[in-house]
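ok new one. same drill as before - structure tokens go in, u give me an amino acid for every spot. 368 of them this time. try not to just spam alanines like last time pls lmao
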């Protein structure tokens, strides 16, 4: 009986299809969703690309300086003689520094080139006794340098953040004590410079400190740079200034990794005079503006070999004195670097080296 009831009940039940909403998985809806996603992704990618492009232009743009859009429209000489008394030669000094044997020949060329340009001054060379050999001292003396020992001035804050090759560079500050040797005016020259013309007028500068603006300035968001390069300095020595610098280098806030150049920029930043490029003709000028470089040639006093070092032979340690044969190889290779961009300037250095060897080669040979 129960079975019959179930059959009867089920026979009277009818089923109707319930109308449902369109499926979200239909082909049309999937196509629409993909289109929206593609557009969204494309929009995000374009936004990121724009932000990246903007960041690159901001952080890696070449800052503006006087070398940009240069036009040769000024033919006036850099220096003029206004007359008046000049300091005697014994109270003036060309000074450099020697912290490694590898720069002895370079300094010999600097000294000989300065004498060839008739610079009237003493040639004083502070050096670190435990870093320089008898051979190196013999070579620099052969070209007229007067070497004298100075103590190491260690970098501030224990050398935190400083590159190892700059650890001795604060010793350069000792040149401010030249007043104890009777020097009233001095010109500092880095070992990788070359004197092309006389610069005696710098000794009569009324400023206590002067230097040439730096030409790198990469990454400066202001679009210009106020810093100077410490490869050539014109200054009046003062032991009082030296003692003041020694104290303040430990408490001052400056980029430690840039060593003494950063400190000097801080110390003299507000009062130092800026010299024309002809007194520190950095090879970077030629790389940036060949037109300006050509305009400087007639007045160029000092060339600074920052981009290539004609006296460095990659096959030998940079701390060793090169033989004449190794020097010839070093000069040849230097002229080929940067696709030969500085071959002419390396040629200037080669001519100065060979002139030195012709004049002083016999004395230098005795040093080996």
């Amino acid at each position: 009986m129960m079975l019959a009831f179930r059959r009867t009940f089920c026979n009277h039940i009818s089923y109707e299809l319930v109308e449902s909403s369109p499926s979200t998985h239909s082909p049309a809806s999937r196509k629409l969703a993909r289109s929206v996603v593609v557009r969204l992704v494309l929009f995000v990618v374009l936004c990121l690309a724009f932000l990246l492009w903007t960041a690159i232009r901001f952080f890696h743009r070449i800052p503006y300086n006087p070398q940009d859009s240069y036009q040769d429209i000024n033919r006036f000489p850099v220096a003029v003689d206004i007359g008046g008394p000049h300091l005697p030669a014994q109270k003036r000094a060309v000074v450099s520094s020697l912290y490694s044997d590898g720069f002895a020949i370079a300094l010999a060329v600097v000294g000989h080139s300065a004498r060839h340009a008739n610079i009237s001054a003493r040639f004083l060379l502070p050096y670190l006794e435990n870093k320089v050999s008898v051979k190196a001292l013999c070579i620099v003396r052969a070209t007229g340098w007067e070497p004298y020992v100075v103590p190491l001035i260690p970098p501030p804050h224990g050398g935190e953040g400083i590159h190892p090759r700059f650890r001795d560079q604060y010793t350069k500050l000792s040149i401010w004590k030249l007043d104890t040797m009777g020097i009233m005016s001095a010109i500092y020259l880095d070992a990788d410079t070359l004197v092309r013309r006389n610069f005696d007028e710098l000794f009569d500068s009324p400023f206590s400190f002067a230097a040439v603006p730096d030409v790198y300035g990469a990454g400066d968001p202001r679009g210009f740079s106020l810093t100077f390069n410490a490869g050539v300095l014109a200054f009046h020595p003062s032991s009082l200034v030296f003692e003041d610098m020694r104290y303040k280098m430990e408490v001052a806030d400056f980029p430690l990794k840039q060593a003494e150049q950063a400190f000097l920029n801080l110390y003299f930043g507000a009062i130092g005079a800026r010299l024309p490029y002809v007194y520190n003709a950095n090879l970077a000028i030629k790389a940036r503006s060949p037109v300006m470089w050509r305009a400087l040639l007639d007045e160029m006093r000092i060339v600074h070999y920052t981009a290539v070092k004609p006296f460095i032979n990659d096959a030998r340690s940079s701390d060793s004195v090169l033989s004449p044969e190794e020097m010839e190889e070093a000069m040849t290779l230097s002229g080929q670097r940067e696709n030969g961009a500085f071959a002419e300037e390396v040629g200037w250095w080669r001519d100065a080296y060979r002139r030195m060897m012709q004049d002083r080669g016999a004395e230098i040979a005795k040093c080996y």
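The chain has a mean pLDDT of 86. and btw The beta strands are 92-95, 122-127, 146-149, 185-189, 193-195, 209-213, 228-235, 273-274, 281-282, 302-304.
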